[in-house]
What does this fold into?
Amino acid sequence: MKKITALLLALALLLSLAACGTGNGGSSGSDAADSSTSDSSQPDPAPEPEPEPEPYDIYDPTVMPEGGVRDGVTYVAYDGIVEHLFIHPVIAYPELAFDGDSQEKGLDDYMITATEYQRILESVYQRGYVLVDIADVWSETTDENGSAVMVRNTLYLPEGKKPLILSYDDTNYYEYMLENGFTYKLILGEDGKIASWGKDPQGNEVVSRDLDAIPMLDKFVEEHPDFSPFGAKACLSVTGYQGILGYRTQTDRTVEWTDEREAFRQSEITAVKPIIAELKRTGWTFGSHTFGHIRLGTLGMEKIQEDTQRWFEEVGSLVGPTNVLFYPHGERPDGDDWKQTGPVFQYLQSQGFRIMCSVGIESFSYIKKDICAVICDRLHPDGTTLRSKYVDQRYGQFYDVREIFDWDARPDYGVNWQ
It folds into this structure.
C-alpha cells in the first residue's frame, strides 16, 4: 500500500512540475515543443480574396436600343461595308526580331511592332470606326423554301460611326516566337486582367499590358469605351499544334505519349482555362485556323478531315463552339471558294463553319447561293503592305502609313511610297 501511495505521490509531483514548466518562460526542449504545438493550433490567416472582375457589358448590334438611344448616344441603322483587319502577334522587342538572322525578313514581312499596332488602334479610333464581333455581322436563318441560308444583318451603330472587325491569327505563341521578340503567353495579372508574360532581351521576366496585342486592345478599350460600344474585341484565330495562348495543350503523335507528358498537358489545360474564360467574358471570340495550319487548297480530303477533327478535340473542346474558319496562308478550299463550292468547302461547312475568311486587297464578302455559308476577305496590316506602293489606296481609310511605320525598329528594306 505504501508503495502504491509513493507511486501516486511521485506521479502527482511529475504532473505538477510539468504544469509549472508549461506556464513559465523556460526554454527547455519540451517547453519549446509545447510552445510550438500551441502556436500551430492558431488558425492560419485568411487568404487574400481573389479580385472581383469588373462588370463587362455585351450588347447585340443587330438590335436597336430602346428609343434609339443608349447612354445618351443616338444609334442608326447601317448596311454598308464592314471593314475587316487582321494581324499576327505583335513584336514586343524589335531588337530580337530584326537581328539579321534567317528569320528577320519573314518577321518584317508578316508582322507589325507593338508601336505600329498602338498607332493603328489610335488611327482607326480617330477615324470613327467601332468594333463589332464577326459573328454578329452575318446570321444563319431559313428561307421561304425551308433551306438554311446566311444573311447579312443590319447593324445599329452610334450615329456617324463605321463598323470594324478585328481578327488575330496564330495567337498560339509558337516556339519560334519566343526567341524572336514576342511575348510568351497570356496570364491573369494580379488585378485579374489579361496580361502578357515573357522575357526581355536581358532575360528578365516581364508581365505587361503594353507588349501584346490582346491586353493592349483591352487597355485601349478601357481608355476609349466608345471604341467598343457593344463590348466586342477581336476574334482569335488559333491553330493547335503547339497549344493555344502560350500553353502547350497539344498531344504529339510523333513521340511515345507517356504519363508524364499527359500530366504536363493536363496542367497546361488547367492553367489556360481561366484565361479563355476571362477573354470570352470580356468580348473576345475564337475561330479555327485549322489544327496544323494546313493548306486547304492542296491537301487531300482525308488529311483535312483528320486535322479538322483534331482541332475540335484539342482546341474546340477548350475554346467552345465556333462557326468561323480562317484559311491558313489565305489559301481557299479546293483552290477557289467563290466560283465553285468544292468537296473540301462542303465538308468544312458540314462541320459547322459558316463564315470563311481569307486574305485580300479589300474587305470583300459574298454570301454563297448554293450552300449556307459566307466567304470574306480581310486586309492585313504588316510589313508587306506597310512598304507597298498601294498602301494609301488600300489602307488609307484606316491610317496614313507615314504616321504608322516604325522607322526606329524596322530594318532598312526601303518603302515603295513617297
